[in-house]
Write a structure and sequence with these properties.
heterodimer; A: mainly alpha; two-stranded antiparallel sheet; 4 strands; globular; B: Rossmann fold; Rossmann fold; 2 domains; 12 helices; 39% helix; disordered N terminus
Chain lengths: 296, 377
C-alpha cells in the first residue's frame, strides 16, 4: 500500500510538470489553432534562466527560489511574445501548415542556439529552495515534490482566474470562439495573442524550473521529451481545453510512473502512448474536449 | 592539388570549423571519432586529451617511420547514428590509416563495420562490450571487456560489500549497460547471490523514482547500476531522497567528475570499477600524470584519458613494427601486440583482439575519488 501511495505521489509530481507545459500548448491552440512546437524549448530556456539567475541569489532560501522562479517566468514570457511577434505574426492568415513548419524551425533554432551558448554537456542545476525529506509512515515525501504540486496547482488556479474573471481572459475566450467576430466587437487580437503566448511561456518556464529542481541535470535538448509528453497530455485532455490539459498531464505522469515501477518498465513510453491511442479511440476529442464540427 | 578537409574542435562552441589545407607528404593521418560534446562529453574529452598527449609525445620523439602523426578528430555529439557517417568521412575523404574511438560501446559498434569493410584498423580505447571486437578482425581495443568487469564486480559485491541480495537497475537502450548487467548476473548467481529485483530505464531518462520505489520494499543489500555517469548521479540522488541507504555500485561508466558534481552528497560511499587509478605509484603512471597535468592546466587524468593515451601508443608501436601504414599489415602487427607496458597495465592482445587486464575499485569520499583495491582477473 505504501508503495502504491509512493508511486502515486511520484506520478503526480511528474504529471504536474507535464500539465504546466501542456497548458501552454493548449492555450495557443485555443486562440490560434496551431501547435507551437517551440514551446518545449521555451521550457528549456526557462530552466537555463533559472540556472544563471540561481547564481545571483543565496541557494536554499524560499525568497531566493521564488525570485528566480519569477525571473524565469518573466524572461520566458518576453521570449514567447518575441517569438510570436517575429515568427508567427507575419504568417497570420497563411495556411496552418506553414506556421507549423515555422514552429519546428523556431524549435530547432532555440535548441541549437542553446548548444552554442550553454554548451551541449549537461549541467548541474542548483538547489534553489530548501530541501527536506519527510517520512510519513512508509512514505517519503520530498519538499521538492510538494513544491511542484503546490506551484502547479497555484498557477493553474491563477490561470483559471485570469481566463474566466478578467477582461483579457474574456477577450481570449472570445478570440478562441470566433476570431472574426471578436475583432468586430472591438477586441484587439494582436494584444490577446501576444498575451496568450506570454502567459503560456511563463507557465513553461515554471515547468522548466520545477523539472530542473527535481532532476537537476539540464542541457539544451532537455525539453524534447517532456515537450512531447506534454503535447500528448494536451491532446489527451482535449486540445484547447485548459482543465483538460491539466488532467491529461496528471494522467500521463501517473500512468508512466506506474509502468516504470512495474516489471514492464522497458515498455514505459510504449504503454503510455498506447493508453493515449485507446482513450482517443473512445473519446476522439480527448477526455474533456468537446467535439466540434468544422464549418466550411 | 589534393586538399583535405580538416576538422578543428573549439571547446566553447559545439560547432565545426572547417579549414582547408594541403596534405603534406610524409604525414601519418589517424582519425579519431569521439563524444566531445553531449551526454558522455566528460569521457570523450578525457579520452581525446589522452590521445592528444600521446600523439604530441610521439611527434616530439621524431614520429614513426620518419613521419609525423596528424590526428583528425570528429565529434559525434554523444548521439547514436553519427559515428558511422563520421568513420566513412574520415576514411574516404581524409584517407586516415587507422581509426581511434570510441568510449561508448554503442558508438564503437556503429563505426566498426565501416572500418572492417575499408580494411582500416580501428582501436577502441575504452569500449568494454564484447561485441565491439566481434565486428571483425580489424577491430581492437586496449581495455578489459565486460565479461571480465562483470565477474570482478560480482566478486567485489560478494567479498567486499558482503552483499547477498542485489537489486539491478539497467539501461535498456545502452548495449554497454545490458551487457554488463548480464555478465554481472551470471557469476553472481553462480556463487550463491540473489537478484531480488530487476528494473529498467532508458538513456536520457531523468526520473528514476518509480523504479527506485519498486526496489525499496525488496530490501536489497546493494543496488547495481551498470550505466553512465549522467544517469548514475541522478539515480544515486533520487535513491537517497527516497530513503534508500544501501550502497550503490557500477562499472567504469561512472568515472567522471560530473558524477560528484551532479550527485553531491548522494554519491558518497558509492563504488565502481575502472581501469586505472592516478594514485598508482608506478613510475610510468606518475610520469603520465605529471605530463598530463602540465599540458592540461593541472587536470588529473582519469581512466578514460589513460586509455586514450594507451590506444594511440599501441597503434603507433604496431605501425612501427609493421614498417608501413597499409591496413592489413598494421592489423597483423596490432594482433601480435604482446606485453606492451601501458599506463593502464600490461597490454597483450588476445585471439579475440581484446586486452586482458586487472581492474581497480574506486569509491567517493569527501567529494573525491578514492582508490579502494585492485582486483586481478
Amino acid at each position: 500500500m505504501s508503495e502504491f501511495l509512493q508511486q502515486l505521489l511520484n506520478g503526480l509530481s511528474l504529471g504536474a510538470i507535464y500539465a504546466l507545459i501542456a497548458l501552454g500548448y493548449t492555450m495557443v491552440y485555443g486562440v490560434l489553432r496551431f501547435i507551437n512546437f517551440a514551446h518545449s524549448d521555451v521550457f528549456m530556456v526557462g530552466a537555463f534562466i533559472g540556472y544563471y539567475a540561481g547564481k545571483l541569489v543565496p541557494a536554499g532560501t524560499i525568497w531566493g527560489g521564488l525570485t528566480v522562479l519569477a525571473a524565469a517566468m518573466l524572461g520566458c514570457a518576453v521570449l514567447g511574445m518575441t517569438i510570436e511577434r517575429l515568427a508567427y505574426r507575419p504568417l497570420r492568415g497563411a495556411p496552418t501548415l506553414n506556421v507549423l513548419i515555422t514552429a519546428i524551425g523556431v524549435s530547432l533554432l532555440l535548441e541549437y542556439t542553446g548548444q552554442v551558448f550553454f554548451g551541449a554537456a549537461p549541467r548541474n542545476f542548483p538547489a534553489l529552495f530548501p530541501v527536506k525529506n519527510f517520512a510519513v509512515g512508509g512514505l517519503v515525501v520530498s519538499s521538492n515534490q510538494l513544491l511542484v504540486i503546490a506551484v502547479a496547482l497555484g498557477l493553474m488556479v491563477g490561470l483559471q482566474l485570469i481566463v474566466y474573471h478578467t477582461r483579457i481572459g474574456t477577450a481570449m475566450r472570445a478570440v478562441s470562439l470566433n476570431p472574426k467576430a471578436a475583432v468586430l466587437m472591438g477586441v484587439n487580437i494582436d494584444v490577446v495573442i501576444s498575451f496568450t503566448f506570454g502567459l503560456g511561456s511563463a507557465l513553461a518556464a515554471a515547468g522548466g524550473i520545477l523539472y530542473a529542481l527535481n532532476y537537476p541535470s539540464i542541457d539544451p535538448l532537455m525539453g524534447v521529451m517532456p515537450g512531447l509528453k506534454a503535447f500528448v497530455a494536451a491532446i489527451l485532455g482535449g486540445i484547447g481545453n485548459i482543465p483538460g490539459a491539466a488532467l491529461g498531464g496528471l494522467v500521463l505522469g501517473t500512468v508512466e510512473t506506474f509502468v516504470s515501477g512495474s516489471p514492464w518498465s522497458t515498455y514505459k513510453d510504449a504503454i503510455a502512448f498506447a493508453i493515449l491511442i485507446i482513450i482517443l479511440l473512445f473519446r476522439p476529442a480527448g477526455l474533456l474536449g468537446r467535439f466540434t464540427v468544422e464549418k466550411v | 592539388m589534393i586538399t583535405a578537409l580538416r576538422f578543428r574542435w573549439l571547446p566553447a562552441f559545439a560547432a565545426t570549423v572547417l579549414a582547408v589545407s594541403a596534405s603534406a607528404a610524409g604525414v601519418i593521418k589517424v582519425g579519431e571519432f569521439a563524444s566531445l560534446t553531449g551526454k558522455e562529453a566528460a569521457f570523450g574529452q578525457s579520452s581525446h586529451k589522452g590521445t592528444l598527449l600521446a600523439i604530441e609525445e610521439l611527434n616530439a620523439s621524431g614520429g614513426v617511420l620518419g613521419q609525423q602523426f596528424e590526428l583528425i578528430t570528429e565529434d559525434n555529439q554523444s548521439k547514436q547514428g553519427e559515428s558511422a557517417t563520421i568513420a566513412k568521412k574520415l576514411i574516404s575523404r581524409d584517407k586516415v590509416v587507422a581509426l581511434l574511438g570510441e568510449v561508448a560501446s554503442g558508438r564503437s559498434l556503429e563505426a566498426a563495420p565501416i572500418a572492417q569493410n575499408a580494411r582500416i584498423p580501428m582501436v577502441s580505447p575504452s569500449s568494454t562490450n564484447p561485441r565491439v571486437t566481434e565486428m571483425g578482425n580489424y577491430v581492437f581495443r586496449v581495455c578489459f571487456i565486460d565479461p571480465l568487469q562483470g565477474r570482478l564486480l560480482a566478486k567485489f559485491a560478494q567479498s567486499t560489500l558482503k552483499a547477498k541480495r542485489v537489486a539491478l537497475l539497467t539501461s535498456v537502450s545502452s548495449p554497454y549497460s545490458v551487457g554488463l548487467a548480464k555478465f554481472f548476473k551470471e557469476p553472481f548467481l553462480a556463487h550463491g547471490g540473489e537478484i531480488v529485483i530487476e528494473q529498467k530505464y532508458s538513456e536520457n531518462d531523468k526520473d528514476f523514482k518509480a523504479q527506485l520505489t519498486a526496489i525499496k520494499p525488496t530490501h536489497p543489500d546493494a543496488i547495481f547500476v551498470p550505466g553512465y555517469y549522467t544517469e548514475a548521479a541522478l539515480i544515486c540522488k533520487q535513491a537517497r531522497d527516497l530513503g534508500l541507504t544501501v550502497p550503490l555500485f557500477g562499472g567504469d561508466g561512472w568515472e567522471a567528475p560530473q558524477l560528484i558534481e551532479i550527485g553531491g552528497a548522494a554519491v558518497e560511499g558509492i563504488y565502481f570499477t575502472t581501469h586505472y587509478s592516478p594514485e598508482s605509484t608506478a613510475p610510468a603512471v606518475q610520469k603520465f600524470v605529471q605530463d598530463f597535468r602540465t599540458k592540461f592546466a593541472g587536470e588529473t587524468p582519469d581512466a578514460m584519458a589513460a586509455l586514450g593515451y594507451d590506444s594511440a601508443m599501441v597503434l603507433a608501436q604496431a605501425i612501427r613494427r609493421a614498417g608501413t601504414t597499409e591496413g592489413p599489415k598494421v592489423r597483423a602487427a596490432l594482433a601480435t601486440t604482446k606485453n606492451y607496458a601501458g599506463i593502464t597495465g600490461v597490454i597483450t592482445i588476445d585471439g579475440q583482439r581484446n586486452a586482458t587486464k586487472s581492474a581497480v575499485v574506486v569509491t567517493v569520499q569527501d567529494g573525491q575519488f578514492k582508490f579502494v583495491e585492485t582486483i586481478a582477473p
